[in-house]
Design a protein that fits this description.
Layout (H helix, E strand, L loop, with lengths): L16 E13 L3 E7 L4 E7 L5 H8 L6 E10 L7 E12 L16 H6 L1 H4 L3 H22 L4 E2 L5 E2 L11 E4 L2 E5 L4 H11 L1 E9 L12 E10 L3 H22 L1 H6 L4 H5 L7 E3 H10 L12 H8 L6 E4 L12 E2 L2 E5 L1 E6 L4 E8 L4 H10 L4 H9 L8 E7 H9 L20
Parallel strand pairs: 3-5, 6-10, 12-13
Antiparallel strand pairs: 1-2, 1-4, 2-3, 4-5, 7-9, 8-9, 10-11, 11-18, 13-16, 14-15, 16-17, 17-18
Helix pairs in contact: 4-6, 4-13
The structure holds one RNA strand.
RNA sequence: UCCUCGGUAGCUCAAUGGUAGAGCAUUCGGCUGUUAACCGAAGGGUUCCAGGUUCGAGUCCUGGCCGAGGAGCCA
């Protein structure tokens, strides 16, 4: 019995008998020769079945294969300049594991489909080369993020999904029943990160985040994944440097390990290769002036809209760090700048090419009195934030952190039109299935 | 929530108010090197739903359902 091998490793088996197990991707035939394209999740290889070289049963099996039928194919690996992967499989044995019946064929053909049809068949669409490439890049990005923090002495500390109240009081939350009580799905692990940062010094959490906003744009999901570091004794500049280092590291890693996926996605890698520190830094004041110069309606004191972000980032080849927004547009826990109390020690990182905000964060209020004032001013429920104020009573220190939305980073690095393709099963305003 | 656009064969789309069409997919036939293979033939329709106007509606009108893009809000 020849060894079962993965298509990605096929080069090591040139000239040898192997078994490939996978699914039929496409089939071309020419009378007495059949070319089944087989994918196994690690790659695609073209098989060759010649009528005169195999039993009539194997040939008939091959000729009648339907798209996505699962199979095991035995044969000899042969280097061939005509093959896209450099190798072909001369099939001598074929076992059909499950035959997709012709009365109910695989719905997704190699031809054009509309987005609604593809989203309805997301569970099958994931098998296509393009979606597989995105899943690969997403995996690499998440692994790179974790390596970056792990290698710098951070401890991953998970934060809860059920929360008693809004973290920030700004966004709409999903309400769920919690026995006789109500709970909300988390919109950020940050407040809990502030607690755990005092325990381990440098922490991060990585998990799903939920926003019940009725946003219907290419940058929004109702359920998305966020990685959030928090560092004790760190100031705004430290958070900016940490975010800059993280994004540069992630891009470098993807370029090093996922070239083939970026090629499938037709990503212009030259643009990604320019993403090296230092990233440009701009104060909110400067950003407003630039925007006004480009014809935006923005006034000092307002937050940027999607068009503003695109307008601002289009002048730069690297991600852009915008810092010191007016406190009024930022969350209650943002520390005011001692030199200018009307602005917060916060930072947003805007990805190039209109991909929007990928990082948001800054320095947190360390002073108990000021924090309590802010909670009262925002009319947040003090009973559920008592523990958070407690952190300012027992060894309060300056601390900073940020959150990075994984899907927007994936969309940017892959060069996708819409974040819905960056997550296996997107949850959106009008999409809960599959 | 608001604005714009759309819903016709399994899929992608055509069709001036006048017989419902093409490409792909499927089935059958042909082809020993195909690369979204190609060539020939066949089958395939509650035109999203409910009303209305009209001699006649896929097309026009009203309401609804579903979806897409954008705005606001946000990562």
């Amino acid at each position: 019995m020849p060894p079962v091998v993965e298509i990605r490793n096929i080069a090591q088996f040139a000239g040898q008998e192997v078994v490939i197990q996978g699914w039929l991707y496409n089939l071309r035939s020419s009378g007495k020769i059949v070319f089944p394209l087989i994918r196994d999740g690690s790659g695609i290889i073209q098989g060759v079945v010649v009528k005169s070289a195999v039993s009539p049963q194997v040939f008939e099996h091959a000729r009648g294969l339907t798209q996505e039928s699962s199979l095991r194919a035995a044969g000899k690996v042969r280097a061939d300049a005509r093959a896209p992967g450099g190798f072909e499989l001369d099939i001598t044995g074929l076992e059909i594991v499950q035959y997709v019946p012709i009365e109910r064929p695989y719905p997704i053909t190699p031809k054009d489909h509309g987005i609604e049809f593809l989203m309805d068949h997301r569970h099958l669409w994931l098998r296509s080369s393009r979606q597989r490439a995105i899943l690969g890049v997403r995996h690499e990005i998440i692994k790179a993020c974790r390596d970056y923090f792990d290698d710098r002495g951070f401890t991953l500390v998970d934060t809860p999904i059920f929360t008693p109240a809004a973290c920030e009081g700004t966004t709409t939350l999903f309400e769920v029943g919690y026995f006789e009580d109500k709970a909300y799905l988390t919109q950020s692990g940050q407040l809990y990160n502030e607690a755990t940062a005092a325990a381990v010094g440098k922490t991060y959490c990585f998990g799903p985040t939920f926003r019940a906003e009725k946003s219907k744009t290419r940058r929004h999901l109702t359920e998305f994944w966020m990685i959030e570091p928090e560092v004790a004794f760190a100031h705004l500049d430290d958070a900016m440097a940490l975010g800059e280092g993280l994004v540069a590291f992630v891009v470098e890693r993807v370029l090093a390990k996922r070239r083939s996926e970026l090629k499938v996605l037709e990503r212009d890698v030259a643009k990604l290769e320019k993403v090296v520190p230092p990233f440009p830094r701009l104060s909110y004041d400067e950003a407003v002036k630039i925007l006004q110069g480009k014809g935006s309606e923005i006034q000092w004191g307002g937050d940027f809209g999607g068009t503003d972000e695109t307008l601002l980032s289009e002048g730069f080849e690297k991600p852009l760090l915008v810092h010191r927004y007016p406190s009024q547009v930022k969350a209650f826990y943002m520390a005011p700048d001692p030199a200018r109390p009307e602005v917060a020690l916060c930072v947003d990182m805007l990805a190039p090419q209109g991909y929007g905000e990928i990082i948001g964060g800054g320095e947190r209020i360390a002073d108990e009195k000021l924090l309590v004032e802010r909670i009262e001013k925002e009319k947040l429920p003090p009973e559920t934030l008592g523990w958070y104020v407690d952190l300012r009573r027992y060894g309060s220190v300056p601390h900073s952190g940020f959150g990075m939305g994984i899907e927007r980073v994936v969309a940017w690095i892959c060069g996708l039109e819409h974040v819905r393709e960056t997550i296996p099963f997107p949850r959106m305003l009008y999409r809960l299935t599959p």
